[in-house]
Task: structure prediction
Amino acid sequence: MALFKRLRDLTMSNINAMLDKAEDPVKMLDQYLRDMEQDIQDAEVAVAKQIAIEKKLKQQVEEAQDLVGKREAQAIQALEAGNEDLARRALVDKRAVAEKAADYQAQYESAKASADNLRERLGEMKDQFGQMRNKRDTLKARAEAAKAQKQINRAMTGFGVDNAAKGFQRMEDKVLQLEAEAEASNEIHGGSRSLDDEFKQLQKNNTSAVDAELEALKAKLNK
Result:
């Protein structure tokens, strides 16, 4: 039996862990609020029905009380007319209506108490809903902040500062290598010039020297 209990506990623990992992806090909060809204709507319907019953009973009480007064006035009118039998019948009906009025009054007071209780509970539900809605906004903001922090942490773990620094160092080494290769290639190319190339360069240098001397003479003549 202990083994089966242990297996059951492990199974329930795994199921609860899966549910906790699958639940999105923001979505679940919205669902809870929707459920509360539905409960409030149902409560409003119940309160409206109870208020209707309360009003109906109040109307019946008032009508019965009015009829009691009316029968008493009729009994007096019958006595004044000398019709005692009619007066008696009016008083009998008055007593019956008075009993109904008393019964209606008791039902009205009970219905009113129920309606007042439902109104109070409905108000509490609405207050609680408002508090839960405000709390939902706070929890939603905290959840979004936690998700953003989690994404940042994951990004920093996948590509940290050390990795970037190492990558830049490798690229700098490659650039230095390319520069060294280019300089070596230039030296090799310069050392392989032909004899004719060297004479052309010499002639070019001599021509430049003659031009410079010519300009100097021109300047001297102008003076």
